[in-house]
Amino acid sequence: MVTLTPYGGLDLTGVAASTDTLDFDQARQRNTTTNPANPYAGLDNTGVYQEVKLMENINSRLYGGVRFIGGALQLGAEVSLSNQGFIEVANTQTGATRSRALPAVLGFSTTLGLDF
């Protein structure tokens, strides 16, 4: 038996993320963070990333392909286009921010297999 099956779809993906304080000083020792002269010495070279909210970070993927099955042999091909969303970019001289689109990703994949 031989079958040729076209398919397509749309995927929506949302990502939410937040961080605690991150230490960017890899050489820092645990006992060096307590300094009576400067109680905030442990916060030097640390930071917190901005929270990413779920409904403000939705990415989409549009895909389509075809699958051929002939006996035990299976062949497939798929094309997909993914939207990566937007990021806020700050001008280092003026401090003004603007929204910038990330480039879309076009992908092509193939499959070869045996199906029993």
Strand order of the largest sheet: 1-4-5-8
Rg computed from alpha carbons, rounded to a whole number of angstroms: 24 Å
The ordered string of helix (H) and strand (E) elements is EEEEEEEE
> If helices are DSSP runs of H or I spanning 4 or more residues, what is the number of helices?
0
**Approximate strand percentage:** over 45%
Description of the molecule:
The protein has 116 residues and is an all-beta fold. The chain is built from no helices and 8 strands. The protein has strands at 2-14, 22-23, 46-47, 58-70, 73-83, 86-90, 97-101, 105-114. The strands form 3 sheets. Strands 1-4-5-8 form a 4-stranded antiparallel β-sheet, with no helix packed on it. A two-stranded antiparallel sheet has the order 2-3. The chain has a two-stranded antiparallel sheet with strand order 6-7. Strand 4 (58-70) and strand 5 (73-83) form a beta hairpin. The model has no long low-confidence stretch (mean pLDDT 84).
